[in-house]
Amino acid sequence: MTEGKIYQEQGDIENAKSCYEEAMEVKPDQPEPYDEMLKIHWDLSETEEFVNLAEEAGENTDEKEHFELFEKLGGEYGMYQAYREIFTEYAQSASGIKLASGMLQSYGLVFAELLDFNNDGTDELMLAYTETRYEDTPGMLPYPTDDFKIEVWGYKWDTMDAERDFEGRPLRDENMQWFVQNFMTDDGSVYLRANDKNGESEVYYSYQNESEFQDSRERELKAYALEGDIYDSGILIENPWTERSRTEQELSYREEAIEHTIKRVLGLESTRGDMPVPQGSYIQNTDEVSMYVNSYLNEENVPALSVRYCEDGNSGEYEFCWNEETGIYEPGGVSEGQEAVLSVAMTDGNLGVFIQTVNLEDGLQAELMRETEYDTTEMAQNIDGAGKEDGQNTENQTVEEEKTYQLDEEGVAYATQQFLDGKQFRTLNITSEYKAADADGVFRYNEAYWVPIYENGGNDPSYYAVIASGAFENPGEATIYPAEIYNLIEGTGKMSDYSGLEEFDTNLYFS
After folding, report:
1. Average pLDDT over residues 43-51
2. In a 3-state reduction of DSSP, which class is residue 110?
3. Residues 436-490 pLDDT 10s
4. Burial 198-210 (b: 16+ CB within 10 A, else e)
5. How many angstroms separate the Cα of 36 from the Cα of each of 41, 153, 260?
6. Which residue from 35, 156, 200, 203 has the fewest beta carbons nearer than 10 Å?
7. Is residue 198 within 8 Å of 234, Cβ to Cβ?
8. Cross-strand partners of 101
9. Cα 240 from chain centroid (whole Å)
10. pLDDT at 396
11. Per-residue DSSP letters for 299-320?
């Protein structure tokens, strides 16, 4: 091991690898050589080797959770990287959109969206484009084209590669308007309504499945115009270019967020407890504004922020570095010398941001929730404390004594129990004893957190607390429903069938 680290510090990677491989062969149950080899794979951008080694280490050592984290994050990094490469390839030729007097014309890669079609927690990438490129069109727009295509790409975890799972053509109505249309059903599944690749028959597509869709239940509908009269459709039409820009920003944000997480936990990126914005990832994603922020220490160990935004198709990406003397974030790194002003403030775990750039003369304001999935600081603290003997973990013991909660599975479980213990009920029986499920029992459905609640020691939930996540306009607001609301998940009911019994704000219990 020591010899391998010496080789590694000297830049002799091949000999370092040989030392670690020998150590893993002699003592396959020791985690240290796996960690060192993972650092090498990550530095060399060997994502597939990184994931495979993490899986092997989880099977051979007692640090299963430690290495499962790397396996999961490495796989997700590979997925978003693959999607971004597909996006970049399709966007290489000039793409554009023109809207005048309600008439829309678009060319090239005009639409992209990340969607979880089968509600399994893994995103798919949907694209719509023309083979005709903007620079190939004669004269002035509009110049109608007849070669729109639509594709859905999925990620294969076994091969760590993205594959095209659906190829078809968008819909075209009687007014010769091209558009993309998708539905979200009550059970969270997403269906794409499109034509087959020959444009001859209409199909409903859900991940790896084409079928006739006969379900008449209420469902959420989205439609994006690609070409034609946007006011003559009879349904609400959304801007495809805005969604394309949002997706481009989100792909880069998630790839970067995972990278900082992995580097932090491997010890390849330093941490500081006095960061102006705590290390981690922050997001706001609404119909009006999308903003993505990663907070990290750069290579000079200076606090830095990468800020991505999208508003009405107007998007931008900036890097800011903390100036200790002035006490503000200033454009730095790849954005050094650019005109941009940034103001940030942390309030109750949320990140308030105001940014003004040459493309945002009036500025843009947003309030972002912290994404604990890519929470570099807390993930590292949890892993740094794993496997240490009693009496050797005083730093983590201090963290536990000063434990704080936020909007995640652990936080909503804690907040729900605190509300139940307070017994300030409007409907529930104050003489009953209520127990909220712990973090492991919390689950997500339709972007909301669901916390089972048990009454008087019962084995089955009597109620569910449903809490809005950061995907909603009212994150943290909670409503307690009777257990029958679970019928929604089983597909035998709808939200309007049930009335809330209690309401509370989980944010009141976070610190």
Report:
1. 95
2. strand
3. 999 989 988 888 899 999 998 888 899 999 999 887 888 999 999 999 998 887 7
4. ebeeebbbbbeeb
5. 9, 34, 17
6. 200
7. no
8. none
9. 20
10. 33
11. TTS-EEEEEEEEETTEEEEEEE
